[in-house]
Hints:
By secondary structure, this protein is an alpha/beta fold. It folds into two domains: 9-241, Type I PLP-dependent aspartate aminotransferase-like (Major domain) (Aspartate Aminotransferase, domain 2), CATH 3.40.640; 248-368, Aspartate Aminotransferase, domain 1, CATH 3.90.1150. It contains eleven helices and 14 strands. It has a seven-stranded mixed sheet with strand order 1-9-8-5-4-2-3, with helices on both faces. Helix 3 (61-71) packs across helix 4 (89-96) and helix 8 (235-266) packs across helix 11 (354-368). The structure holds pyridoxal-5'-phosphate.
Amino acid sequence: MSDIPLVDLAAQHAIIADEVAEGWRQILERAAFIGGPPVAEFERQYAEFVGVRHCVGTANGTDAIEVALRALGIGRGDQCILPANTFVATAEAVWRAGATPVLADCADDATYLVDPDAVRAAISPHTRAIIPVHLYGQAASVERLMPLAGQAGAWVVEDAAQAHGARRHGNSAGALGHAAATSFYPGKNLGAYGDAGAALTQSDELAARMRMLANHGESRKYEHQMPGVNSRLDSLQAVVLSAKLRRLAGWNAARRTAAGRYEALLGDLEEVVRPRVLDGNEHVWHLYVVRVPDRDRVVEDLRASGIAAGIHYPRPVHLTAAFAGLGYRHGAFPVAERAANELLSLPLFPGITPGQQERVATGLRKALR
Length: 369
Ligand SMILES: Cc1ncc(COP(=O)(O)O)c(C=O)c1O
């Protein structure tokens, strides 16, 4: 029996291979690899898809968060609140912008999203941004964070790296706050063939600053208004992203169907805490994350039966060596810490078959025995 991967990118490529080959052929012929019509076209399409006025392509998602924060004037001496349970990049981007990450625990409700009450408690006179992370494919409750940010004189910058196409009360992740950043890392719901990302906003002025910052602070050729970074979206990646964007809604629907199958297959397993969809959310199931006892052994057992299981993430930000210097102790964020010990991501991708999911469920049942 063949192994079941966590994600299957080859199957997606087979669907768009001809389109990508033709787009790349044209770029190779023109020998114009940075910017140009494919990038502008993708930026226009993605902004429209999310429902924002501006999409600024960047080299990756981490840069996109940094660029969004810096475009808002956030830097040294400022604090940005973000969840303890996220990929470390969210904290890194804050740190690279020169600001200090301040962490908040997640809600104890099997969504693993940041707890707005914990965010409120973390606000200080130095708070300049709240960064909700739309983790695993569903949006955080940004509508509860916007008033908090308003009172604190801070901005809401969404980390929408895991939520392409997700909606909250009908609006897209990435269009819920003042600005947003996303990643097109290959394994994402909308993934490039290498690194890529984008910053998003409704504001013309902010978008202009984002675009400058991402391109050496340049307003016009060799007119450098501020020290920026080199973080641009390549035209080869833009071709892939445009081809995939056309199929994204269908692929997200297939993920939803697959998540529904896991719901049915795992419903009777008392030891398994299945993921909860927050009221008002359209989840796009970037990851199907459950909580199980004795997680590390379960992962090993699954892998031994040819089932790839992931852990997102084995350590909350404050327990990484990189951010130990923030000074938080073990026990500071109990919900995130428990999640880090028990979370397990099951294989889920648009082309996963009912048979593969049944095998995953059987494997999990066996591992839990
Ligand atoms: C939640 C989250 N934030 C930020 C990033 C950073 O994106 P990138 O890897 O493109 O820099 C990622 C993905 O890797 C992510 O999952």
